[in-house]
């Protein structure tokens, strides 16, 4: 199967003024498109993998009996495809509050504000390119951590819940070196909590 660039449920300017139209357009139509194309390219060599759900590929990639270079390519481009798809979904302006998630956040972090503080600190201090994650372990407990590049909690056996892209391509046009300001403003795009 071939992966296609997922359509956004909203316009490129829908997250203004927190995320500008030009950044959204380039991020989706250029960066995400490139991850999608490169993921398809590496899957061409592995037709049986190409039939598996992407979650299974990202969970098991380290155990696959394939070339190290191709493993990295699957993580980088498969992760890039998956992570951005989820990123667009959690920023959808038509999202409603997720009361079940809010209850779990309160249980595991004490309050939504405490959760936001911890997640924000993780995003601000992640060195280089990567993502801040909220993920759920097998027992249902929530965890916050940063992962570099396009790595994904599925590699740890966790289920991704929320994520924030802190690659420079996600904010540089509007925020330049001011990653903390981008992160603070980004919370305004999250209607789930
Ligand atoms: Mn990105």
Question: Based on the structure, what is the oligomeric state of the protein chains?
Answer: single chain
Coarse shape: globular
Number of domains: 2
Looking at CATH, which topology of the largest domain would you report? minor pseudopilin epsh fold
Strand order of the largest sheet: 2-1-3
Average of pLDDT: 97
Low-pLDDT regions = none
Percent helix, as a range, is 40-55%
Structural class label: mainly alpha
Summarize the structure.
The chain is mainly alpha-helical and 193 residues long. The protein contains 8 helices and 3 strands; from the N terminus they run H-H-H-H-H-H-E-E-E-H-H. It has 2 domains: 21-90, Fe,Mn superoxide dismutase (SOD) domain (Helix Hairpins, Orthogonal Bundle), CATH 1.10.287; 99-189, Iron/manganese superoxide dismutase, C-terminal domain (minor pseudopilin epsh fold, 3-Layer(bab) Sandwich).
């Amino acid at each position: 199967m071939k992966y296609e660039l997922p359509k956004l449920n909203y316009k490129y300017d829908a997250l203004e003024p927190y995320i500008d139209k030009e950044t959204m357009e380039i991020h989706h139509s250029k960066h995400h498109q490139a991850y999608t194309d490169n993921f398809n390219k590496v899957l061409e060599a592995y037709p049986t993998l190409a039939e598996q759900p992407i979650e299974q590929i990202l969970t098991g990639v380290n155990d696959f009996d394939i070339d190290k270079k191709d493993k990295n390519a699957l993580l980088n481009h498969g992760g890039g495809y998956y992570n951005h798809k989820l990123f667009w979904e959690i920023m959808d302006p038509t999202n409603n509050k997720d009361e079940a998630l809010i209850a779990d956040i309160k249980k595991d972090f004490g309050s939504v504000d405490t959760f936001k503080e911890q997640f924000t600190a993780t995003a601000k201090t992640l060195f280089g390119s990567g993502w801040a994650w909220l993920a759920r372990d097998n027992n249902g407990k929530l965890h916050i951590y940063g992962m570099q590049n396009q790595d994904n909690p599925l590699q740890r056996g966790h289920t991704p819940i929320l994520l924030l892209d802190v690659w420079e391509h996600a904010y540089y046009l509007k925020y330049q070196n001011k990653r903390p300001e981008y992160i603070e403003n980004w919370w305004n795009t999250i209607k789930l909590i």
